Amino acid sequence: MRGHRERSGSLFSYVSIEERIPASHPLRRIRKLADQALDRLNPTFCELYASEGRPSVPTEQLLLASLLQAFYGIRQVIVAIGVSNQASDAVHLLPMLERTLANTNTGQMPDALIADAGYCSTANLEACEDRGLNAYISTSRQQHGQRSRPSRGRPPADLDARGRMDRKLRSKAGQTVYALRKTIVEPVFGRIKGARGLDRFRLRGLEKVNGEWA
């Protein structure tokens, strides 16, 4: 038997959800779109349940809970994707940044940009500095578990963009931020390959592969 959606926040909290979320928060727009989509699916949900028995947890609440986990629980929302036949990662950094800015439509730079050594080039580092982007881009590949010597003292005045980035990453704060790649970026790759089974493309040609990836 299908259960009904009920707001029971008062059972668990003395402050309602409406009071916790600012009026301008994007979650409100997401919730509105989700409610509209679920309302259209309501007849389909009704057909899947018997008319007798113990009421179950409403399907809508389960789906909304999954959305909340995706958007706010693990901070692993993909906002921009792309497929290329170019071997170098470095040429993709700025185009993917532009695509991210276009898709998020906030008019603001991200709080931080984290990228591995494959995206490091003098041009990319200087472009991030020119834009005022708080970037953390590894300047060299390291073996697993290897830690760089922490930077100390004042930075030399003659450091180039690569030297400034290297020093930034060797600072305590830089090491902490860069380590977030392990919990934000890498698990996404694992789920795409392991859980979704997309360990290789099955179509041929850049245009077809782009459609498969999207």
What does this structure look like?
- With 214 residues, this protein is an all-alpha fold.
- It has two domains: 9-73, no CATH class; 90-195, no CATH class.
- 48% of the residues lie in helices and 3% in strands.
- The protein is built from ten helices and two strands, in the order ααααβαβααααα.
- The protein has a two-stranded parallel sheet with strand order 1-2.
- The longest helix is centred in the N-terminal third of the chain and has 22 residues, at 26-47.
- Mean pLDDT is 80; it is low at 8-15.
Structural class: mainly alpha
Q: What fraction strand?
A: under 5%
The rounded Rg comes to 23 Å
Termini separation comes to 37 Å
Give the number of helices: 10
Strand order of the largest sheet: 1-2
Q: Roughly what is the average pLDDT, rounded to an integer?
A: 80
Strands, total number? 2
Order of helices and strands: HHHHEHEHHHHH
- What's the shape? elongated
Which sheet architecture does the biggest sheet show?
Answer: 2 strands, parallel
What are the segments in which pLDDT stays under 50 over at least 5 consecutive residues? 8-15
Helix content: 40-55%
Number of domains: 2
